[in-house]
């Protein structure tokens, strides 16, 4: 009984034994896996993870004991309950990510056996995959690839006794590199299937424009250097900066403080998202209900857009934008709209008809909507507008005069305008005379409405940074802009941008031509303090990195069914199921043979290892004597079998085996390595001579 108890205890001791080499790799991989998830981790989740890491370091150093299971279980229970209570506030997806992170951290400190290590490593792979769903840029992917390598090294150290970090890292790199060709083949050949499930939305917008516009919110975007989207024109066409007005939102309701979308448009948007009949009265649900007869194909601009994740539905295009892509709708206010929130990079194709009229016929209800002004607001601006109406009865002459007014008065374009009171436009237009694009656009739209001309505000982006090497435009958040559309009979909605009168350099040459980046989007960046933005080397380096990320977005993240078909046609000509099957089988066969060869399972030529060749030469001779070495038979087991079958050879073969094992599996200095190598070769020759001699003697006896 005591013997069984000791045996059981010994087994448990073996079971919980984890080498310090593996524990060190676990410390590294724990930090590495959590590092890309810093944006999703809540403060208290981060605190628990930090405590777990410190506790595990203490265990590694032998300063503290493992926590009892009841404590880990209690922490897991209360963490899950807390996450459930705040899930609505932080979003379901963020709550689930935090739950998995906490489970990973708590399992990490209570590990007792190899099985526990395996669970931690598998959870690590799952967290890496989850991170990739949200962070898919080329740099994030390289980061995650490095994290995957570190996580793989944990498994390698678990099954290899070598206390050598270089060995684990080398083998892990080799394994990952072997998987790359297989991943590429499957990526190209496998069909693009629709997702079986959807990632739940985060619950809040990430960054970018808002569906309301006031004197402050677009100004805040000028402090952000985040990428909004990229655009590539067909045929390498490069429009001038002044023509790049990227339409995103149209604001028709004005309450004296802010502009916002009309309920008829938001109801139409909700109908597209919910795929139900709208409860509110809507305008035409799409541009299909608006006359398309005035679209001239000769003036069409074709281009593709890669929108960055924003958590919103609105897309970007030049007037008048159309798209036939699935999941992209064209609204009655000439905007593009995604039926699902943009949680990942979205590639879509656009054709814009730059000379097309926008809604030549305007219904009476829409005219009244775009003439509406809040009562009692901005009386001085109303009086100024009436003077324009009196002196310029013609609508187009009046608009020209109002635009010219901004150049005749001492107006200034600034990112830091002075504050305004309740009569916002009066204060700006007639007192402060300093503002940003929203100030000038709001004042112009107000005066147009006050003189009886339907007007509305449009927000989006203006301009773009052209990458000459890759041939695309990058549009950043600090390029956010607002302008005005006024409806004119026989012409429809016509764009007017007062900013072009105050700061023409901003429109014609771009944001950086007018504003100092250190005072805007580089204000909170170390590049701004160091003055590196003006460095030509830094600029070229940034453009090169941006080009790499762009091609990754186009050919990896944007590798849709159409691109897959083009690539397969280049390789196979006419694409058939038979050709695809042959391509897949041949490719997988080549990859499999390569992996088998690198693992030593097959050999196509004689090894360069003279010790291995000497050992195999003796084994080959013994095979002819019906003593073939089995594939899963180690040198010691084979030595014992040869000794029993051929006693006369036992002593010499035992020496030979000892020399071989010492050279192949022991750490030797150069002197010992050289001595044993000489003895192994000498013993190999002796054994071959003895085996051949015995075989000849046996043949002579038989004859």
Automatic annotation (TrEMBL):
Keyword match Ion transport: no
InterPro entries (alphabetical): Bact_TGase-like (IPR052901), Papain-like_cys_pep_sf (IPR038765), TgpA_N (IPR021878), Transglutaminase-like (IPR002931)
Protein known as: Transglutaminase-like protein
Entry keyword annotation includes Membrane: yes
Ranges annotated as spanning the membrane: 21-38, 44-62, 69-86, 92-109, 116-133, 139-159, 171-190, 580-602
Keyword annotations from UniProtKB, A to Z: Membrane, Transmembrane, Transmembrane helix
Superkingdom field: Bacteria
Pfam families membership: TgpA_N, Transglut_core
Coiled-coil annotated residue ranges, if any: none
Domain Transglutaminase-like: 429-500
């Amino acid at each position: 009984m005591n013997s069984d108890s000791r045996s059981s205890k010994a087994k448990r001791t073996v079971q919980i034994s984890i080498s310090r080499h593996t524990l060190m790799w676990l410390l590294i991989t724990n930090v590495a896996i959590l590092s890309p998830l810093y944006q999703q981790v809540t403060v208290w989740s981060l605190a628990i993870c930090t405590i777990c890491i410190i506790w595990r370091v203490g265990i590694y150093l032998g300063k503290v004991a493992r926590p009892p299971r009841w404590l880990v279980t209690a922490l897991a229970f209360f963490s899950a309950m807390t996450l459930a209570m705040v899930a609505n506030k932080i979003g379901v997806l963020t709550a689930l990510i935090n739950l998995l992170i906490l489970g990973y951290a708590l399992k990490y400190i209570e590990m007792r056996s190899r099985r526990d290590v395996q669970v931690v490593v598998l959870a690590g792979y799952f967290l890496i995959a989850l991170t990739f769903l949200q962070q898919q840029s080329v740099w994030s992917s390289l980061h995650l690839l490095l994290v995957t390598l570190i996580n793989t090294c944990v498994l390698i150290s678990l099954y290899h006794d070598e206390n050598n970090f270089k060995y684990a890292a080398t083998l892990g790199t080799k394994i990952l590199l072997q998987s790359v060709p297989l991943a590429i083949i499957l990526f190209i050949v496998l069909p693009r299937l629709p997702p079986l499930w959807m990632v739940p939305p985060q619950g809040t917008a990430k960054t970018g424009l808002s569906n309301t516009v006031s004197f402050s919110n677009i100004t805040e975007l000028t402090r952000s250097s985040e990428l909004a989207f990229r655009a590539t024109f067909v045929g390498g066409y490069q429009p001038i900066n002044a023509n790049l007005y990227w339409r995103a939102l149209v604001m028709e309701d004005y309450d004296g403080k802010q502009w916002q979308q009309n309920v008829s448009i938001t109801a139409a948007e909700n109908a597209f998202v919910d795929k139900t009949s709208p409860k509110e009265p809507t305008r035409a649900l799409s541009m299909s209900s608006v006359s398309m007869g005035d679209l001239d194909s000769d003036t069409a601009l074709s281009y593709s857009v890669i929108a960055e994740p924003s958590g919103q539905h609105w897309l970007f295009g030049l007037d008048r934008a159309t798209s036939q892509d699935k999941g992209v709708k064209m609204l009655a206010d000439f905007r593009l709209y995604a039926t699902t929130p943009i949680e990942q990079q979205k590639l879509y194709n656009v054709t814009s008809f730059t000379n097309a009229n926008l809604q030549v016929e305007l219904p009476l209800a829409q005219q009244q909507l775009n003439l509406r002004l809040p009562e009692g607001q901005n009386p001085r601006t109303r009086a100024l507008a009436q003077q324009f109406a009196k002196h310029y009865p013609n609508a187009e002459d009046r608009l020209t005069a109002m635009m010219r007014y901004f150049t005749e008065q001492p107006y200034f374009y600034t990112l830091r305008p002075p504050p305004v009171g309740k009569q916002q436009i009066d204060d700006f237009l007639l007192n402060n005379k300093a503002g940003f694009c929203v100030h000038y656009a709001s004042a112009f739209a107000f005066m147009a409405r006050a003189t009886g001309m339907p007007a509305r505000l449009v927000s989006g982006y203006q301009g773009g940074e052209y990458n000459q090497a890759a041939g695309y435009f990058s549009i950043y958040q600090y390029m956010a802009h607002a302008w005005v559309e006024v409806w004119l009979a026989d012409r429809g909605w016509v764009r007017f941008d007062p900013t072009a009168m105050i700061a023409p350099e901003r429109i014609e040459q771009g944001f950086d031509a007018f504003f100092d980046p250190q005072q805007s989007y580089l204000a909170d960046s170390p590049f701004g303090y160091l003055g590196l933005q003006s460095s030509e080397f830094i600029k070229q380096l940034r453009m090169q990195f941006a080009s790499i990320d762009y091609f990754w977005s186009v050919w990896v993240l944007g590798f849709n069914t159409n691109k897959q078909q083009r690539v397969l046609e280049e390789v196979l000509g006419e694409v058939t199921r038979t050709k695809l099957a042959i391509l897949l089988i041949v490719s997988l066969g080549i990859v499999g043979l390569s992996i088998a060869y690198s693992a030593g399972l097959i050999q196509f030529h004689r090894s360069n290892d003279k010790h291995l060749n000497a050992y195999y030469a003796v084994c080959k001779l013994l095979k002819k004597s019906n003593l073939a070495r089995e594939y899963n038979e180690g040198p010691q087991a084979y030595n014992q079998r040869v000794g029993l079958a051929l006693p006369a050879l036992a002593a010499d073969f035992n020496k030979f085996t000892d020399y071989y094992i010492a050279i192949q599996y022991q750490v030797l200095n150069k002197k010992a390595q050289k001595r044993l190598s000489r003895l192994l070769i000498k013993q190999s020759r002796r054994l071959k001579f003895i085996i051949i001699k015995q075989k000849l003697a046996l043949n002579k006896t038989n004859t």
